[in-house]
Design goal:
This protein has 408 residues and is an alpha+beta fold. The chain folds into two domains: 252 residues, FAD/NAD(P)-binding domain (3-Layer(bba) Sandwich); 148 residues, no CATH class. Helices cover 31% and strands 26% of the residues. The chain is built from eleven helices and 20 strands. Strands 1, 2, 7, 8, 9, 10 and 19 form a seven-stranded mixed beta sheet that branches. Strands 12-15-14-13-16-17 form a six-stranded antiparallel barrel. It has a three-stranded antiparallel beta sheet with strand order 3-6-5. Helix 8 crosses helix 10. The chain starts with a strand and ends with a helix. 48% of the residues are buried. It binds flavin-adenine dinucleotide.
């Protein structure tokens, strides 16, 4: 079948659905099509935020966005991004509720976000063609592209295909990114971000399943890169949890030696901690080291920290002298793990890198190379931190490019 579209959106995910609705609202007479590779639109959106969809964040700052030009994200999102987003979602029947700065649909159901986006597409007459994985594109006065069952001619195109995170089942195979790369678009190396970190396993494996609140710091070649406070989960392969996911980006982007240091007592300085350890030792003289931390730390964690500090659990608490108390405090403040890798795109929430933002206008997301060709969301070299930043960027790209495409 041959399709003729005034506006063709490639990819029916977060940014593509919003772009389609926005384009059709601004230009109701134009034929707006979504071409989606999977059998349904919004498959990734449904699994976001553990099915709750962390739709936005009240505190959008440049430092929460990454790429060669993070300011690009702020310029695209413009003034009052939260207000624009909330107005859009209210208009399709979704009100927001906030947990601290994190915004969610009041239903706490990601599926309801997809439903409301679909209902609005249907109401407006946006045409959706699923199982339409676009396999090439020709740029000219009009755009021509194809999928297994059809060809498309379009006056305007919005590319909203994402990258690799979440894997093929969620439509993230990077196919359209590679097509654009082969067409000469400048790209920035793509790596997983917001991803679990693999480490040397001697200690983490013994702690599998334990969660702690800690300051997690990434070191690259001994230099401090980034610290995040939050939950850390010990796994048999390494470390997970929000604090780790938020410092994972730089570890995944380098071949240089990285380490993660956990500060298990972030509110207490090392000297005070050493004194507290010594006081505890004086109080609990009758115990073996095996139970020294019992009642203060998770029992297994306490034992492993002591082993990490070089002590033997069979020894007596009376062996903790001033020097040992300082060693134990140092271990609690700097429990360190050598990074050996990450769990890959399939387990990552976002892909860092992508099509260079140099290729697109930060005013309306139109290509500087090809007039009337736009790009949105994760496909671009912008990625955000954990906490609603990635969906916010994707949705606002949809608002901006949809409006601009309608005005062409
Ligand atoms: C498990 C998980 C949880 C997440 N949770 C959150 C969260 O709570 N908050 C948050 O802010 N971010 C979250 N993210 C990140 C967020 O989902 C993405 O950053 C966002 O969806 C990107 O939007 P997008 O429109 O650029 O791409 P996508 O939403 O990935 O949409 C791209 C669409 O294009 C289609 N497509 C791809 N290639 C082709 C092709 N060649 N032809 C046609 N169609 C194609 C895909 O099938 C897909 O439907 C999460 C990600 C994952 C994997």
């Amino acid at each position: 079948m041959n399709y003729f579209a005034d506006i063709a959106i490639i990819g029916g995910g977060a940014s593509g659905l919003v772009a389609a609705i926005t384009a059709k609202r601004h230009s109701p007479k134009k034929e707006v099509y979504i071409f989606e590779a999977l059998d349904r639109v919004g498959k990734k959106l449904i699994v976001t935020g553990n099915g709750r969809c962390n739709i936005t964040n009240k505190n959008l700052k440049t430092e929460n966005f990454h790429g060669e030009n993070p300011q690009f994200a702020m310029t695209v999102m413009g003034d009052n991004p939260n207000k624009k987003l909330e107005e859009f979602f209210n208009s399709i029947g979704i009100s927001f509720t906030f947990e601290e700065n994190k915004g969610f649909p009041a239903s706490f159901q990601a599926s309801s976000v997809v439903d409301c986006l679909r209902f609005e597409c249907e109401k407006l007459g946006v045409k959706t063609v699923c199982k339409a994985k676009i396999s090439d594109i020709k740029f000219g006065k009009e755009f021509k592209f194809a999928f297994s069952d059809g060809t498309v001619t379009a006056k305007t195109v919005i590319a909203a295909t994402g990258l690799y995170s979440g894997g093929e089942k969620l439509g993230s195979d990077g196919s359209f990114y590679r097509i654009l790369k082969s067409c000469g678009f400048k790209t920035v190396k793509v790596t997983p971000s917001i991803v679990q970190i693999k480490t040397e396993t001697d200690f983490v494996r013994q702690l599998k399943g334990i969660k702690v609140d800690a300051n997690a710091t990434l070191y690259k070649n001994g230099n401090k890169i980034r610290t995040e406070f939050g939950e850390v989960l010990f796994c048999d392969y390494g470390l997970s949890g929000p604090a780790i996911m938020n410092i994972s980006r730089e570890a995944a982007r380098t071949d240089e030696m990285c380490q993660i240091s956990l500060d298990l007592a972030p509110d207490t300085d090392k000297d005070t901690l050493a004194k507290a350890v010594l006081d505890r030792a004086n109080t609990l003289k009758d115990r073996n080291l095996e139970d020294f931390f019992t009642g203060m730390l998770n029992k297994r964690l306490g034992q492993v920290v002591l082993k990490y500090a070089g002590l033997k659990l069979a020894d007596s608490v009376t062996d903790i002298d001033k020097i040992a108390s300082e060693t134990i405090a140092a271990a609690l403040k700097d429990f360190r793990f050598k990074v050996t890798g990450n769990t890959g795109f399939i387990n990552s929430q976002v892909s860092a890198g992508g099509i260079s933002t140099d290729e697109f206008s930060d005013k309306n997301l139109m290509s500087k190379r090809y007039k009337n060709f736009f790009a949105c969301g994760e496909l671009l070299d912008i990625d955000g931190d954990c906490g609603g930043f990635n969906l916010t960027f994707a949705f606002l790209c949809g608002l901006v490019s949809g409006k601009a495409a309608a005005e062409v």
